[in-house]
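Hello Y.,

Per our agreement to keep a running log of every chain we model this quarter, I'm adding this entry. I've kept the format consistent with earlier entries: sequence first, then predicted structure.
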Amino acid sequence: MKFYIGAADVTTGKAVFHRCTDGGKRDLKWMQASASMPLVSRIVEVDGFRLLDGGIADSVPYRYMEGLGYTKNVMILTRPKGYRKKKNAAMPLFRAALRKYPAIVDALAKRHIVYNRQMTEINKREAEGRAFVIRPPKALGIGRTEKDPEKLEKVYQAGRSEALRRLPALREFLE
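Predicted structure for the entry above:
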């Protein structure tokens, strides 16, 4: 199965993607970049890019996958239907910490707008039968940097349970 990683280029503020081929050092570097949160993680350098978390530039990269020709996309979201992101209160910190990278600061400032538009588009695709979405029925009750293994296990099990519940519908969608 082809496996892609998305990250945000701090120089341009745009999403860039990498197709993983062997799970080696280069692929792992892209995975690290994809999960590198601003203020919490260092910028990751790989393949000539300086990268942070892909969600900054493209929270759910369904358009990228559609551009590759995929027509039956399965999207796994971490927020319940109807969730809308608000303007990030940490913007002054982002501006200070990333002042050398105005494009990524701009992407962070607009992230809530882009995310909310994507959720509207995803809901439409789902209603039209062009996407299959698995999302929690209610808020998970953990933060982005949760470290408590028991809480993480509880959230994992909730996601697994929801996926199993939706499995018959997923099989039907993929036929």
